[in-house]
Write a structure and sequence with these properties.
This protein has about 325 residues and is an alpha/beta fold. The longest helix is centred in the middle third of the chain and has 17 residues.
Length: about 325
């Protein structure tokens, strides 16, 4: 096929710093257009079209792929409309506000025959792929525990929509826990149980400023995720414990992979991610489009739904915070 013509819906920080540069450098891809209320955002990209809405953009028969980088509450309507219009779709995380919307996206992706994926780019980190291989090889024995902490302060003013549960779904649970939950799902499969505690420990917000959750997996692995917007000390920790050793991925976004066995013999492998964390994601998705193999995407809709299932149960168990799925009208 000719160059894959991408449209990016939502020209925020991630799109400008990572997604658009990745599209521009991927050899089979071209940036065809932007969905934005500010056409001036296309000025750095000569010849690129703009539309004020997703509905307008997907009427263009030349468009091949829609990348959705809009607030979470817009993910499902944009994705479903684009799939029904025959476009391939790569959607930012989390896939939707709740499991009901996720199921609708899964159904739309299946019936469309188009390629659909979710931007859980950490699945393509070399050290996470390596960790999965080491687990399969039995290097740490039977895995029993996986832990992830990600702590920071409140989002920047440019991302203030994250503080509105109707737009974002929740606070750090939706913004940063979803990546850690998906990484655990990548390693251990579909979760079966969830218990969660959400609270405003420091800030008076409509969303939580801290979330701690326990996830059960069919193989008996327990997952613990703790995310916070109330720490001046940044943390990005990830550890997998087995009966015979452990894998230390601290910092999750860094290059180090510590491998320790029961004899206290340890080594550190250096497996850095790509300088542009989104480039492997765009490369992977473009390959799936060119070969017309939806199952080749790093995170297909069916697996992205697992994370939305976890998020919904966390909110259900803490009804004073977050957006209740029952309050969201069916579309």
């Amino acid at each position: 096929m000719s160059a894959i013509r991408w449209v990016v819906a939502g020209v925020g920080d991630i799109a400008q710093k990572r997604v658009i540069p990745a599209i521009l450098s991927e050899p089979r891809s071209t940036l065809y257009g932007l969905v934005t209320r500010d056409p001036a955002k296309a000025d750095p990209y000569p010849g690129v079209k703009t539309w004020p809405s997703v509905d307008a953009a997907i009427q263009d028969p030349t468009v091949d792929v829609l990348y959705i980088a809009l607030p979470v509450f817009l993910h499902a309507p944009a994705a479903i409309a684009a799939l029904r219009a025959g476009k391939h779709v790569l959607c930012e995380k989390p896939m939707a506000l709740n499991d009901m919307e996720s199921r609708r996206i899964v159904a739309a992706a299946r019936s469309s025959g188009r390629v659909f994926g979710v931007a859980y780019y950490r699945r393509l980190y070399p050290k996470l792929i390596r960790a999965k291989k080491l687990i399969a090889e039995g290097v740490i024995g039977q895995p029993v525990l996986v832990e992830a902490n990600c702590h920071s302060w409140l989002p920047e003013a440019s991302r203030a929509w994250l503080l509105d549960p109707a737009m974002a779904g929740g606070g750090p649970l939706y913004d940063i826990a979803c990546h850690r939950i998906d990484a655990m799902n990548f390693l251990f499969g579909q979760p079966t149980r969830v218990a969660a505690l959400l609270s405003n420990s420091v800030h008076a917000l409509k969303v939580e400023d801290s979330a701690t959750l326990a996830i059960g997996y069919a193989a008996g692995v327990h997952g613990i995720v703790d995310v916070r917007w109330n720490s001046r000390i940044a943390r990005d920790q990830f550890r997998i414990v087995g009966t015979e050793g452990e894998l230390d991925l601290h910092r999750l976004n860094g290059p180090e992979l510590g491998v320790n066995d029961h004899s206290l013999n340890g080594k550190v492998e250096m497996l850095p991610p790509h300088a542009n964390l989104h480039y492997p994601l765009i490369l992977n998705f473009a390959g799936a489009v060119v070969t017309n193999t939806p199952c080749a995407v790093a995170c297909p809709a069916e697996q992205a739904r697992w994370t939305d299932w976890v998020l919904e149960r966390c909110v259900d168990q803490n009804p004073a915070l977050g957006v209740s799925p029952s309050a969201i009208p069916a579309k």
